[in-house]
User: Fold this.
Amino acid sequence: MSKRVTIKDVATEAGVSVTTVSFVLNGKGGGVSQSTKERIFCAAEKLRYTPNHTARSLVMGRTNMIGVIVPSITNTFFAELVRNLQRRFAKQGYDIILSNNEESARKDLKSIDLLAGRNIDGIMLTPSAESLSPENIGLLKEAIGKLSVPCLFLDRYVHGYPHVSLDNSASAYSLTDYLVSRGHTKIGVVTGPMQLNSSANRLKGLRKRLSESGLTLCESCLFEGQYDLETGERAAEYFLQTDVTAVVAFSDIQAYGIYKRLKECGKRVPEDLSVVGIDDNVYSALLDRPLTTMRQPIAELADAAVMRLVQMMNGEELSPLPKMQAQLVERESVKLLHGKAEEEE
Amino acid sequence: MSKRVTIKDVATEAGVSVTTVSFVLNGKGGGVSQSTKERIFCAAEKLRYTPNHTARSLVMGRTNMIGVIVPSITNTFFAELVRNLQRRFAKQGYDIILSNNEESARKDLKSIDLLAGRNIDGIMLTPSAESLSPENIGLLKEAIGKLSVPCLFLDRYVHGYPHVSLDNSASAYSLTDYLVSRGHTKIGVVTGPMQLNSSANRLKGLRKRLSESGLTLCESCLFEGQYDLETGERAAEYFLQTDVTAVVAFSDIQAYGIYKRLKECGKRVPEDLSVVGIDDNVYSALLDRPLTTMRQPIAELADAAVMRLVQMMNGEELSPLPKMQAQLVERESVKLLHGKAEEEE
DNA sequence: AAAGCGTACTAAATCGTTTTACTAAAACGC
DNA sequence: GCGTTTTAGTAAAACGATTTAGTACGCTTT
Assistant:
C-alpha cells in the first residue's frame, strides 16, 4: 500500500506550485501558459494522480454526497425508486449514501444525525410510517430542523415541508372509477398506515368517486393495515365474510396477500372477488390472474425529486412540479358485473 | 443556516484547548481532571456539537465508509443482500455508499474509480456478468489492483480473489437430487451467464448428481441465458418442444418466466412440466403453484462478508469461512412420476 | 525613466480534526 | 530544599486540498 499521490507530488514533478496545479486541474487556469498546463497534465497522468475528495470536501464545505433514506429497500417500489435516484444523481456528480431504516422511527432519527455528521449536501427522505405518527412526528421535525442542508421528502411527507409525491387521490379515483364502470358498488378497501399521505389521499380519491355515483364507503368496508403481504391476507379473510364484490388494495403487495389467502380458501380471483392494486410491481403481470393496478411513474418521480433537491442545494428558484399521475393497467383481476356495465357507457 | 459548531467553539466555551476537548471527547482523556471533563461534556452538549466527519477522515486516513457495488438493486436477491449488508455494517460503525451498476462493465469500472477517490475503507463488490467475461475481466482486475483498500467479492467473483459466496454446486446437487427422487430423468436446465461462478458451479453440481444415477445432461437440455424473466419465457418455449419432464431454473425469476409462458401456451405447472428454482424470493410462495426452490442463506452470506471485509480492513487474520449452504424448500411445482418414487426410497 | 498594466505564477491562510512533543505546576522522596 | 516524578494541560504540525492576495517580470505609455 504505497502512499497516495497528492497534489504536492504533481507540483514537484511539474516544477510548479500546488496553487498552479490546483488551478489547472480544475480548469481555472486562466493565467497559466500552455506549456505549463501541459507539463502539469503530463505529471498528473504519469503519477496517476486522483484528487482526495475528503480534503476537497473539507475546504469547500460540500461533499457531493446525498443521503437517501428509505423505509424498506426490499419493497419493490423503493428498490426501483433508489435505482432511479442513483442513476440520476450520478449524472449530476453526486453519490448516494443509502440508509434502509426498516420502518423504524428510531433508525430514521439516528440516520439523519449520522448523515448530518457526514456533511452530506442534501437528504432525500422517505420516513417510516412510525415516524409520521402523532407521537413521533415532533421528533422528526426537530431532527430536520437542526439540519443545515436541504431535505426533500419523497413519496411520504410531512405537511408543510418540501416534497415530491404522486397524485394519490387521482390514482385511487381512477381505480374506483374503473371498478364502478365494471358494475361494482359494494367495494372494500385495504389501506396502509393512515398517517401516510399516500393512504389518506388514496382514501379521499376513492370516496370522491364513490360519492359521485351516490355510493358511500361503509365503515365495515375499510380495512386498515400495513403495506405488506400479511395485511392482504388478513383483509381477504375479512372481506370474504362481507358482501363486497371488489376490493381495492392500496399496494400490489397487499393484493398478492389477498390472492394467496383466497386461494387457500378455495376462492378465485376475480370470480369470487375482484381485486385491484396500486404500484404495478413486475410480479403483478405474472400472477395466475394478472392484476389490474395503477402503474406508478417511478422514473418521473425520481426525476422530479432529484431536480428539485439539486435546485434546493444550489439555492436556485424552484421550478413548478409537474403533477405526477399513475396510469391504469387493465388486466384480468376484475369481474364484469352484468347489467351494470351498459348503464355506465 | 448558521455555521456549524466546531471543536474550537467547544474549547472556548469550556475554557480549555482544542487538544483537551479532542482527547476527552474521544475517551482518551487519561490525564484530564474530572472537573474539566465535565465542563467539556457540558459545553459540547450545550452547543450541540457534532464532530466533522470530513475533517476527521482527512487526518485519520479512514472514512468509515464502504462502497457497495451491485449489478441490480431491483433484483430481489440483491435488494435483500444490500439490506443485510447495511444493517451489519451500521453496527460496525460503517456507512455504505451504494452503486447500482445495471449489469454494465463500464459502470463497474467507473464506480470503482469513483469510490477510490472518496477514500472509502473497503469495497464489497458484486460485478456485472459483463465484467467477468473474458474480454473485460482484465480491466476489472486492473481496477481492483490499483485500489489501495481491500476489496471483497460477494456472490460473484474472480478466481483467486477474496470472496464470499454460496456453495453453488451443492445447491444444484440437492435440487437435482430432489428431481431424481421424484422420478425425473429427462431434466432440462436454464442457466445464467456461464462466466458467473454461480452458473458454472450450479451446472457442475447438477451434472454430478445426474452422473451418480447414470444419467447425463444432453446438449439440447441446456439453455443458457440471463438471470431474468425473459430468459425463462424463452426457455419455456424451447423446452416445450423437447421431452424433458422437469426443468431446473438457476434463479426464481427465470422460473417465473417459465410459469408465465407456460400459462400463455395453455400448459400447467407441474402437470405438463415440473419446474424448480434457486433463491426463494418472497413471490415464489405466492405463485399459482408455489415454487419448489433452494433458499439462499442471504443473512449468513451478508454476515460472513461483512466480518471478512472488516477483518481485511483491520489487517486481522482471516477466520475460516463457514460453508454457506442453501436449503431445499419443497412446494408444489414438481410432479411425482409414478413407478420411480418407490425405487428411490 | 517613471508609472502603469498585463501575464505567469506563488506564499500562505484556511477548512476541522488528531496527535506528538512539550511545559508548568504540584507532589513526592529523602 | 533539591531533584525527580506525576499530573493537567497546551502549542503546533499534520492531513490534502482551495483560494485570496500577492509578487516579479517584462512591455507599453507618456
Observations:
- Chain A touches chain B through 49 residues (CB under 8 Å).
